[in-house]
UniProtKB/TrEMBL annotation:
Protein name: Probable membrane transporter protein
Provenance organism: Ancylobacter koreensis
Main location as per UniProt: membrane
Entry-linked InterPro entries: TM_pro_TauE-like, TSUP
Segments traversing the membrane: 38-61, 73-91, 97-118, 130-156, 162-184, 196-215, 227-246
Keyword vocabulary terms for this entry: Cell membrane, Membrane, Transmembrane, Transmembrane helix, Transport
Recorded coiled-coil stretches: none
Length: 248
């Protein structure tokens, strides 16, 4: 079997993305989709992550569903589910390079807002909550990157890290159903996605386990700092800086 640098790159990316997702409850897509897109394109990377993450996070999801607050999760999820098809349309039709730059700018903007010390009461009206959910759903459909908007929203309300993490697993479960349905309807879950899912799944699974183990005992401050780094990394990884390494 010949050496395939793109596949090795994707395998290492899946491992790091799994660690991030297992620790913080989000962020796997922020690493996986941009970097795997550099090797295989976003139309393969995003559905591949959806398949891998859906299957491998089920054990985490079952525990998180008992801990999350559905009165916080449900309104955001409703807004997200409605907006997912628009994001999928963008994924299917927008020039990949333009999409990657747009996601980088969005990630940097959300990071700046979070690091500014911005806080809110956590009692925003339904239109605002639905709007945040819609932004998350649009980004989720376009690149499986629905995490930053809701993370900024919940951390901005001063939520404890354990609750934010549990809420994220519940939120992603609902958004994943919408994204998966839309991807399937557009014929984007194909043989290439299946092949890549089987090859990268073990690395993602190992990362999930390691990340979840690391979260135990982590303080709220450590979680917040980790969230900063994950979102900053998303902005960096969304840029086409790594394409040359893969001969793209």
């Amino acid at each position: 079997m010949s050496y395939d640098p793109a596949l090795v790159w994707a395998f290492l990316t899946a491992l790091i993305a799994g660690v991030t997702r297992g620790f913080s409850g989000f962020g796997g897509a922020l690493i996986f989709v941009p970097l795997v897109s550099a090797a295989f394109g976003p139309k393969v990377a995003a559905p591949t992550l959806l398949v891998i993450d859906t299957v491998l996070t089920l054990p985490f999801l079952l525990r998180a569903l008992r801990a999350c607050l559905w009165r916080q999760v449900a309104p955001l999820a409703v807004g997200a589910v409605v907006a997912v098809p628009a994001g999928v349309w963008v994924l299917e039709h927008m020039e990949p390079l333009v999409l990657r730059w747009a996601l980088a700018v969005l990630s940097l903007g959300l990071l700046a807002l979070l690091m500014s010390g911005w806080r809110h009461s956590g009692r925003h009206g339904l239109p605002t909550t639905l709007g945040v959910g819609a932004i998350a759903g649009f980004c989720g459909g376009a690149a499986q990157m629905s995490g930053p908007a809701v993370v900024v929203y919940w951390l901005g309300a001063g939520q404890p890290s354990a609750l934010v993490r549990a809420n994220l697993f519940g939120f992603f479960a609902l958004v994943t159903l919408a994204s998966g349905t839309a991807y399937a309807a557009h014929g984007m879950i194909d043989a290439e996605v299946g092949r890549l899912s089987l090859l990268l799944g073990p690395a993602y699974a190992l990362g999930l386990y390691a990340g979840a183990r690391s979260f135990k005992g982590a303080s709220d401050k450590a979680y917040r700092i980790a969230a900063y780094w994950v979102i900053a990394g998303a902005a960096l990884f969304s840029l086409p800086l790594f394409d040359a390494l893969l001969g793209r």
